[in-house]
Amino acid sequence: MNSPVIIKSFQNGIAVILDNTLDFPQLLEEVGMKFRESAAFFKDARMAVSFEGRKLDVEEETLLIRTISENCRLNIVCLVGKDEEKNQTYLKAIHQASRKDENEGQFYRGNLKNGQVLEIESSVVIIGDVGAGAVIAAKKDIIVIGGLYGEAYAGADGGTGHFVVALDMSPEKLKIGDTRYVPVKKTGRWSIRPKVMAKIAFEREGSIVMEPVTKELLNMLPI
Question: From CA 115, how far away is CA 135, in angstroms rounded?
């Protein structure tokens, strides 16, 4: 490529195309310089980011996100990959949360493990899994781009109208505001693990329902 760092826009964010021959420390410098030059363009925009062109591990992705944040005021709401349909669905949920308060919301990269507790004063987007025995509590909405296998509490201060969404929704406990999710017990001779799919939990008529995430559903929800 002519430039070691190329920025291309797509409908919901930007793709950062990286040279795969540079040493990573040098690449970080190039990324920092590129986003300093573009700082006036991004201002305080909230965008999804895709890293392309070279294989990255979690530590390298974290360093890239930090470098971008230190060199411009771009707010990265999530990382996206190649599954376009899944990306579009999650970005819709993120945009719904963002419209509630443009100045709030946090981004967390990594897995929460047994015994870990993460408490957030606003909404949170988690890139990773919330493992069994872990707890995530947010005063607003919770979006898990990964598996939710532990405990999740949205509207943790008692607020209503919030939601929890995850790529694999299998929480030990889930609560929105003061309403606790009660799973529907299925009777039958055979126990079959349900197909993994993105689901969203939200309040409806005094109880919490959990349904597959679709664009149609997100358009209908009062969120």
Answer: 8
